[in-house]
Amino acid sequence: MKRDTVMTVPLIKEVEEEVTSLLSELIQIDTTNPPGNETKAAKYLAENLGKDGFECEIFESAPQRGSVITRLKGTGEKPSLLLLSHLDVVAANPAEWSVDPFGGVVKDGFVWGRGTLDMKGMTAIEAMALKLLKRNNVKLKGDVILAATADEEMGGSSGADYLLQNYPEKIFAPYVLNEGGGWAIPARNKNVYTVQTAEKGLLWFKVKAKGIPGHGSMPDAADNAIMRMHKVIEKLGNYRGPASYVPTVKQFLVEMAKEDESLQEPVSRLLANPESSDAVLDELAKTMPAIADEIRPRIRMTITPTIIHGGVKENIIPSECEAVFDCRVLPEQTIGQAQALIRQMLAEVGLDKLSVETIQAQEPSASPVETPLYRVISSVLWDFEPGCGVAPLLMTGGTDSRFFRRMGSVCYGFHPMKSETLYGVKVTRREHGIDERISVENLVFGASVLYETIKRFMA
Ligand SMILES: [Zn+2]
To answer: 107 C-alpha vs ligand 1 centroid, how far in Å?
Structure first.
């Protein structure tokens, strides 16, 4: 793909009001999960799409846990494309916010509220793009499906996973666009747009340490479970496995270095000698701490203690202590390998008085970068922003894309967004954060880029 053949595509400014009010109204339907109660939002979206003649179906995995699906038919010459999003959001504490998190407030050029970024904003631009395809009678060689689902924030078993298990004929598509990437990272020369092509796997587990209780005044006569757990936490929490650069991360670093020459030297040292990564990153952190922090969790398995419970009274040496750990594995690793490694480290502490229990496990997932859809995304971005960078992204967290990748779909996290400023201050991404918001400008940009991407991919 040549970057110098520039054909600038105009933004579809006419949709500004429509996509803004669509998002604002979605925000006003509180879908905090738990409990979710997504059906109301699913019905709202079905009604909204219905005005353009879309026939929508709502599927409930349980009462009020609804997801909505609709389809725009193509000729069948090309594989279908699913526009995926989730309707549920995480909790928001109104006392911490400067606006009502469920008010759908539009001010200062932004739509404010829980879910504007994660991810009703993408639901809105996907619905807008679908309406435009229909209104403009765009000839599609493949079906375009839209699914806005329940339960992503609690693991997706009552949403995307449920639909794939029970209604694959409705929701499955060989290509999927979802959350998890698409925003621009401002590099020194140009913006670099991200496309999420891979996700780390997740292993949440609990370790229980046993001991022998005793009086707090006589420590040597007892066996303190807290002290045993202390060794476990020191062992697991300080684990630093060998650094490894999976293809997504390698390509991400190369693309970033292209747009920022100060990264060229550190990146070539990282890739040439993975084993000296920590020293290179420590050095990089002195001048570019944010980039160094972004790279670190993407080059190895991580194990982080997140919860600890132990002890009942000031003067009782506890016989039990338990801790929860959040382990994330790279796309080339497996949960089984992580479990074996953890057992091995615990054995070094002494397995006899320790037990391990898995809370939740999800294998990592990845899609190839060399696909027709990735090429279309790149070419569309270059037309909207000539010369911008495009880089694949490994996400440290997880999304519903993993269910589709497991079924063989090519899934990309692509919610197109320019980096934002408000009163000259950079708005850092605020998924799950206080005063979560998205600019109206980015809604127009997102809808325009998505529309053009689907149009070209299905041409
Ligand atoms: Zn999300």
So the answer is: 23
pLDDT tens column, 274-284: 999 999 999 99
Distance 67 CA to ligand 1 centre (A): 15
356 and 371 housed in the same domain: no
Overall domain count for the chain: 2
Cis peptide before 35 (omega within 30 of 0): yes
Residue 63 CB burial class (10 angstroms; 0-12, 13-18, ≥19): exposed
Cβ neighbours of residue 345 under 8 Å, at least 6 residues apart? 235, 236, 239
pLDDT-based confidence at residue 4 (cuts at 50, 70, 90): very low
Give yes or no for residue 206 having a pLDDT over 90.
Answer: yes
Task: Band the pLDDT of 379: cuts 50, 70, 90.
Answer: very high
Q: How far is the CA of 159 from the centre of ligand 1 (A)?
A: 12
Q: Measure 76 CA to ligand 1 centroid, in angstroms.
A: 30
Domain that holds residue 353: 201-239+301-362
Taking residues 189-201, report their average pLDDT: 94
| Ligand 1 center from residue 400 Cα (angstroms) | 8
Ligand 1 centroid vs 412 CA: distance in angstroms? 13
CATH value at residue 27: 3.40.630.10
CA of 88 to the centre of ligand 1 (A): 8
Give the C-alpha separation, 121 to 33, whole Å. 17
Residues 326-354 have pLDDT tens digits of 999 999 999 999 999 999 999 999 888 99
Q: Which of 362, 380, 409 is the last residue of a domain?
A: 362
Q: Which has the closest alpha carbon to 208: 332, 111, 323?
A: 323
